[in-house]
Design goal:
Structural class: alpha+beta
Mean pLDDT: 94
Low-confidence stretches: none
Largest sheet: 14 strands, mixed
Helix content: 10-25%
Order of helices and strands: EEHEEEHEEEEHEEHEEE
Number of helices: 4
Shape: globular
Strand content: 35-45%
């Protein structure tokens, strides 16, 4: 998290924390989106916060939310929706692409969405976990890249890292629900993913083509 004081009215969460409660991807949640009414003000705040995503809640009862990276608006993203569902105790979140349902299961918060809602990501399999962990910078190239390797194929355990490779302040994304969903859909099976420094993302495909994404959420700063 950045070292400036978080503005009033913004909660900061860590989403997809590891089993020990550490790591997870930082998320800003603006509970009252009316405080930032225009595109420019929302992007300015998202850039200032510097998190991979910030969520603006436009209607807390209907679950209408607006997701921003430091540089653009996203139609769908996994870790912001898991975090918002947990924080606001919502069962439905309204997005431009469609409604996302949510549920709580012990320490995990789950959302259900469609893989085709996720922005495109290049999924690149590496030969070993060691190769994934050895990366010291984003691999060369353009466009969003998700690198992964089997940690235990029989058990569905994956080691992954994510590199947006876009012109903003996020060099590596700590935990990426949308990419996890795309990988799970491509492989056609449930996955237990360790991403970044030690974040954990769970996936579970459903027969109707939807996908559940689950993880732990912790509150870091309360508004």
């Amino acid at each position: 998290m950045n070292d400036f004081e978080v503005p009033e009215g913004i909660d900061v969460l860590r989403v997809f924390c590891g089993p020990d409660g550490r790591h997870g991807n930082a998320l800003g949640v603006v509970r009252d989106g009316r405080r930032y009414p225009g595109n420019e003000s929302r992007q300015a705040l998202a850039r200032k916060l510097g998190f991979s995503e910030t969520v603006f809640v436009d209607d807390p009862e209907r679950g209408t939310v607006d997701i921003r990276t430091p540089g653009l608006r996203l139609p769908f993203a996994g870790h912001p929706l898991v975090g918002a569902a947990w924080l606001l105790d919502l069962e439905v979140l309204e997005l431009p692409v469609g409604d996302v349902t949510a549920r709580q299961d012990g320490e995990f918060t789950w959302i259900t969405a469609r893989p085709e809602w996720a922005p495109p990501r290049a999924l690149e399999r590496y030969a070993s976990v060691a190769e994934v962990e050895a990366l010291t910078e984003p691999p060369p190239g353009e466009g969003w890249l998700y690198v992964w390797a089997w940690e235990d194929e029989a058990a569905g355990r994956v080691r992954a890292r994510a590199f947006p490779r876009r012109d903003d302040c996020v060099d590596e994304d700590e935990a990426t629900g949308a990419a996890a969903m795309l990988l799970s859909a491509e492989l056609g099976r449930a996955l237990n993913i360790t991403q970044g420094r030690g974040s954990q993302i769970l996936t579970a495909p459903a027969p109707d083509g939807t996908m559940e994404i689950g993880g732990r959420v912790l509150l870091v700063v309360a508004s």
